């Protein structure tokens, strides 16, 4: 978000302006800090969480779907990033900040805690969840 503010004040919506060396170094630092923070927090969760939440009976199928969707989304973002940057300019940073906020809210409310839960008991965790317990049928795969 700070990158968006700095670039927004400098370039505005026209996209024309000049960055001083100090401001350019600051923007580069902020982008590197964002990438590092993402790599240490949200980045690995797309691979780690699915490996913990699928019951053993469907784990390999769930992981293969997860990998496919992850790579498809990465491909789509890579293809549209420059176009979005040209059209949204500094707003692109706010766009991605909004997605991080949305992900945080989703995880807080919809992802159950899996700490110290054996993989064999994950179906019980899903059934006891306030939301997913209503969606998950009683005769689901992995009944305990």
Layout of secondary structure:
Blueprint lengths: L1 H10 L9 H20 L1 H12 L5 H30 L2 H20 L11 H7 L3 H4 L9
Helix pairs in contact: 1-2, 3-4
Structure in words:
The protein is mainly alpha-helical and 144 residues long. The chain folds into 2 domains: 1-111, no CATH class; 113-143, no CATH class. 72% of the residues lie in helices and 0% in strands. The chain contains 7 helices and no strands. The chain has helices at residues 2-11, 21-40, 42-53, 59-88, 91-110, 122-128, 132-135. Helix 1 packs antiparallel against helix 2 (21-40). The longest helix is centred in the middle third of the chain and has 30 residues, at 59-88. It is a multi-pass membrane protein. Residues 1-115 form the Major facilitator superfamily (MFS) profile domain. It is found in: Membrane.
Kindly name the structural category.
Answer: mainly alpha
First and last CA, distance: 46 Å
Radius of gyration based on Cα positions? 20 Å
**Tell me about the biggest sheet?**
none
* Count of alpha/pi helices: 7
Overall shape: it is elongated
Strand content is under 5%
The average pLDDT score comes to 86
Domains (count): 2
Q: Give the helix proportion (percent range).
A: over 70%
Which parts are unreliable, with pLDDT below 50 for 5 consecutive residues or more?
none
- The beta-strand count equals 0
Series of H and E elements = HHHHHHH
